[in-house]
Amino acid sequence: LALEADLRRAIQQNEFVLHYQPQVDVRRWAIRGVEAFLRWRHPTRGLLGPGQFLSCAEEAGLTVAIGEWVIGAACRQQKAWHEAGLPPVRVAVNLSPAHFRHQGLVETISLAVQDMGRSSEHLELEVTESMIMRDLDHSLKVLKHLKALGVRIALDDFGTGFTSLRELRLLPMDAVKIDASFIQEAGAMEGSPGFTAALITLAHSLKCRAIAEGVETQAQLEALQRAGCEEVQGFLYSPPRTAEETTQLLTKKP
Ligand code: G
Ligand code: G
Ligand code: MN
Ligand code: NA
């Protein structure tokens, strides 16, 4: 496959970049964190999103190499923002299932956070229920090692998986990300916000911060504020932006 050869070259030629989407405090409307989104500046096809190449990377066995690049790049960006004197923000990175299973993951994270210029709690790792439930016992060990490094864990796509509530209580998470479908479904927030509010209450009873994803309207924001949600992420504040644009956003008064 042409794309596969391109991907191998992309890693060597530094064709990947990270874009960042703010995670905003709902009360103070200040940026608390940013989620890193992988982009590929393909020499002929233009800017590609993960949906256009990650499954190919998976088949080619390249997800670990790409994941290691993402973690390194996110931590280097942290360091750059730190050295520029910007106020601290969390940087969240999405882990792939293959990277989460990889035995070198903890070492990779351990080395990357040492060089970040911020304490390790400023790196948040986003994992999904399905990636954790493949082998719960092993996942709990990995999560425990990661927590011992001081990094934070966020459960992505919360509410869309098959994890039982009993199993959810075992996971050492710091945040849950309420999936955009619970925000955007017709009436999900405006008409009958009870279900989304219950997910937020569940997050709190798991001692987690709630981050709502895909927040696009003022009405959704206000309903989330009433439901006690801590942070929102979505087009209402900003889509994912380049590192330079994100630096501008972070430079504005918080
Ligand atoms: O904004 P975008 O369309 O790029 O995001 C598409 C999906 O790709 C999202 O589900 C997001 O979690 C995932 N994604 C974005 N960046 C990364 C990454 O660096 N690694 C992995 N494994 N997934 C990512
Ligand atoms: O990692 P995750 O699967 O949560 O990725 C979120 C995806 O949703 C990314 O592709 C991101 O670009 C996209 N996204 C972010 N904010 C919004 C939003 O407000 N509305 C919509 N429709 N998509 C969003
Ligand atoms: Mn995510
Ligand atoms: Na998500």
Walk me through the structure.
With 254 residues, the protein is of the alpha/beta class. The chain has a single domain, classed as TIM Barrel (Alpha-Beta Barrel), CATH 3.20.20.450. 43% of the residues lie in helices and 21% in strands. It has 12 helices and 9 strands. Strands 1-2-4-5-6-7-8-9 form an 8-stranded mixed barrel, surrounded by 5 helices. The longest helix is centred in the first third of the chain and has 21 residues, at 63-83. The termini are far apart. The structure holds guanosine-5'-monophosphate (2 copies), manganese (II) ion and sodium ion.
List keywords for this structure.
254 residues; TIM Barrel; binds guanosine-5'-monophosphate; binds manganese (II) ion
Given helix and strand content, the structural type is alpha/beta
Strand content: 15-25%
Q: Per the principal axes of the C-alpha atoms, what is the gross shape?
A: globular
Question: Major beta sheet, specifics?
Answer: 8 strands, mixed, barrel
Measured on Cα atoms, how large is the radius of gyration? Answer: 18 Å
How much helix, percentage-wise, in residues?
40-55%
Separation of the first and last Cα atoms: 47 Å
Write out the CATH superfamily name.
EAL domain
> Which distinct ligands sit in these coordinates?
guanosine-5'-monophosphate, manganese (II) ion, sodium ion
CATH arch. level architecture: Alpha-Beta Barrel
Just give the CATH class. Alpha Beta
Which fold name fills CATH's third level, the topology?
TIM Barrel
Number of helices in the DSSP assignment: 12
